[in-house]
């Protein structure tokens, strides 16, 4: 009604003042006649007023309109889920057909937008559409070619479905299937991140049937390295099931579970899942004995207390038994040093003993020091951090402990006091303890300096850290079934204080202590593998020379492939090789087994698109509400084919069974307009005669 009033103009056939006077007189006469009871006077008054309205000549103006050029967006979903079945083929055929149709329509420009998706982010079509719509001059609609699985569907119409004036434009959904599909997936509901070695992990999984009712029978199977499968349990979809997985070794245990297929489901890709269980030892017990209060003791204590898997027992010797001091013992320590309990009764219960700045000074009898040496030979770990006390009377190397130490300190001129930056040796670049230490950081190209070290006249084992001149700083060795390490400087704490940038103090000490406690990841003799972008890389670490290193690659289907490992020139003790993995059927499995000599390891294909693989159906369920709200249509490319694009006047339906419409937007021209009579003469004459006749009829009653 407001639009009609705005386009109404007046072109009176008589002077406007005269028409107003006559209208007022007609109203007065009509009111007078009505008060006197005259019959038919109101009808005659209405006829007179209608005649005066016709003489006022109201007219409707009609601006000259022009159809505006149209922009439409053709959005193509290129996410990994579109690789299933014939989805890509259907979508590419639809793209070609729609582009030809768009070129044939006058004033329509069809813009293409490919949305890759994946990479752990899922499919994000609306984010891409909102960005692309900003560059369209006159958006008229969007054609979305997809499987219907989008992970950023908004709760209301997004900006891409509105033009600059706020008008809603249609979203036409073209789905890459014949109709609604079904899919079966296997989910892990609960799984412990860590499991103590020798215990059983309790896993809770569930099979979901998407697009159909649950409660259907299903088998959960386990893939074997030889490509065979065995049934773990029978269950029903939609019901959680408990599984027990034994963990027999430290490190990662891989277990692949698979749900039997659902007839007619879209894909088998998410019927399988990989369970990764980290096998850990029970609480690790560490005994730290500080010979004197020092800066390094705090570093060790902070490091070990921060590790939740470590139980730390720490003692600091404040004075030796022969020290003359009148201070009561109660003021120096809360409890006496339990030498017999620690070094005789419970020494074998510790996984690691750290002697930091320790000088015997008659603190421990000879038998207890012999117990420490025997503890190492029977499988224990010992770390000695040496400082000036190693050159003083009572040094450890002059006791039975010296028989297991990997370095010997001479009696004269053993302390070197000058700044130096620790460096990794050629062996240190390959050894797991120091290989992955960060080179770049706040310290720049070189680690921060230390200012004191011990000179050696004899070393055994392997030197991982040294001074720039080649003097050993960190020496590792194996004695019997145990391990021993010797740090020939007591100034590693300077790194924790950030001395000239500091260094990787926490990581070095963590790796060193765990190597001494025989952490599998830090073994010198190990086999590692990882898969990235479809390529398998195998790395063999050995500190003894190897010749003709061949790895046996066993695929999930049980097929064997030989891979040659070549020595790496820049890293002593490393052999590596890589190969492109062949494409396997979806149900063939995802775990590869690698064997080299007596070593073996397993590696699983990375789950690069967990969000994408949650639901692999082609479905209109998620997008149908937005499509309906925008006035668009839903079309199944596999059954109904590609819809025909039509340009439709605004206000009409924008889709049919086999066509998709784009509203024609028109704008008025500034060159002129036309007008038509609001009350045509023939209509006014008929109404006037009718009202006069009714007045006469009423008067005759």
From TrEMBL:
InterPro entries: Class_I_gatase-like (IPR029062), GATase1-like (IPR010768), vWFA_dom_sf (IPR036465). Signal peptide: none annotated. The chain crosses the membrane at residues 14-34, 677-697. The keyword Transmembrane applies. Residues 355-496 form the Putative glutamine amidotransferase domain. Keywords: Glutamine amidotransferase, Membrane, Transmembrane, Transmembrane helix. The keyword Membrane applies. Pfam families: GATase1_like. This is Glutamine amidotransferase. It comes from Bombella pluederhausensis.
């Amino acid at each position: 009604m407001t639009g009609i009033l705005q386009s109404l103009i007046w072109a009176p056939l008589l002077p406007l003042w005269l028409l107003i006077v006559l209208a007022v007189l007609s109203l007065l006469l009509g009111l007078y006649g009505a008060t006197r009871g005259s019959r038919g006077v109101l009808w005659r008054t209405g006829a007179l007023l209608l005649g005066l309205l016709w003489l006022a000549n109201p007219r409707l103006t009609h601006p000259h309109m022009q159809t505006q050029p149209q922009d439409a967006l053709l959005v193509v979903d290129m996410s990994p889920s579109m690789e299933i079945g014939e989805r890509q083929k259907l979508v590419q055929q639809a793209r070609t057909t729609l582009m030809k149709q768009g070129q044939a329509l006058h004033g329509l420009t069809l813009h293409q937008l490919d949305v890759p998706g994946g990479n752990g982010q899922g499919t994000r079509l609306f984010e891409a559409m909102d960005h692309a719509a900003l560059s369209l001059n006159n958006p008229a609609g969007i054609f979305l070619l997809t499987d219907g699985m989008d992970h950023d569907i908004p709760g209301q119409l997004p900006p891409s479905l509105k033009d600059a004036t706020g008008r809603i434009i249609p979203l036409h959904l073209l789905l890459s299937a014949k109709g609604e599909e079904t899919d079966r997936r296997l989910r892990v509901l609960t799984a412990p991140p860590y499991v103590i070695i020798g215990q059983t992990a309790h896993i809770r999984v569930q099979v979901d049937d998407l697009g159909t009712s649950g409660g259907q029978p299903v088998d959960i199977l386990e893939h074997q390295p030889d490509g065979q499968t065995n049934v773990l349990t029978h269950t029903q979809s939609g019901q959680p099931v408990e599984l027990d997985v034994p963990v027999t070794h430290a490190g990662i245990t891989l277990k692949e579970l698979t749900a039997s297929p659902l007839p007619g489901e879209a894909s088998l890709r998410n019927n399988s899942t990989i369970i990764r269980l980290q096998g850990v030892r029970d609480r690790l017990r560490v005994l730290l004995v500080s010979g004197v209060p020092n800066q390094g003791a705090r570093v060790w204590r902070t490091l070990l207390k921060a590790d939740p898997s470590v139980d730390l027992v720490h003692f600091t010797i404040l004075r030796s038994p022969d020290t003359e001091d009148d201070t009561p013992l109660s003021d120096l320590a809360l409890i006496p040093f339990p030498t017999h309990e620690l070094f005789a009764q419970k020494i074998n219960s510790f996984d690691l003993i750290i002697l930091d700045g320790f000088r015997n000074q008659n603190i421990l009898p000879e038998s207890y020091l012999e117990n420490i040496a025997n503890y190492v030979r029977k499988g224990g770990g010992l770390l000695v951090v040496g400082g000036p006390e190693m050159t003083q009377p009572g040094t450890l190397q002059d006791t039975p402990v010296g028989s297991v130490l990997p370095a010997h300190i001479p009696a004269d001129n053993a302390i070197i006091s000058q700044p130096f930056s620790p460096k990794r040796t050629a062996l240190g670049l390959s050894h797991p303890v120091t290989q992955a230490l960060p080179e770049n950081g706040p310290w720049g190209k070189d680690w921060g300096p230390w200012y004191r070290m011990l000179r050696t006249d004899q070393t055994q084992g392997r030197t991982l850290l040294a001074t720039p001149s080649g003097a050993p700083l960190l020496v590792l060795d194996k004695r019997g079934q145990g391990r021993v390490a010797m740090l020939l400087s007591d100034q590693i704490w300077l790194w924790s204080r950030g001395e000239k940038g500091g260094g990787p103090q926490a990581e070095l000490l963590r790796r060193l202590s765990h190597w001494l406690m025989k952490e599998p990841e830090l073994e010198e003799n190990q086999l590692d593998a990882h898969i990235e972008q479809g390529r398998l890389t195998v790395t063999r670490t050995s500190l003894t020379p190897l010749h003709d290193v061949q790895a046996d690659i066993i695929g999930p289907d049980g097929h064997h492939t030989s891979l040659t490992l070549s020595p790496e020139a820049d890293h002593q003790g490393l052999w590596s090789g890589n190969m492109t993995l062949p494409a396997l059927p979806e149900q063939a499995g995802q775990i590869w087994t690698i064997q080299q000599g007596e070593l073996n390891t397993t590696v699983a294909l990375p789950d690069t698109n967990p969000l994408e693989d949650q639901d692999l159906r082609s479905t209109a369920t998620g997008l149908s509400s937005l499509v309906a709200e925008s006035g668009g249509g839903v079309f199944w490319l596999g059954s109904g084919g590609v819809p025909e694009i039509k340009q439709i006047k605004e206000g009409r339906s924008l889709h049919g069974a086999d066509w998709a419409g784009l509203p024609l937007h028109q704008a008025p021209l500034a060159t002129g307009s036309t007008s038509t009579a609001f009350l045509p003469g023939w209509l006014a004459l008929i109404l006037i005669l009718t009202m006069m006749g009714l007045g006469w009829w009423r008067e005759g009653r």
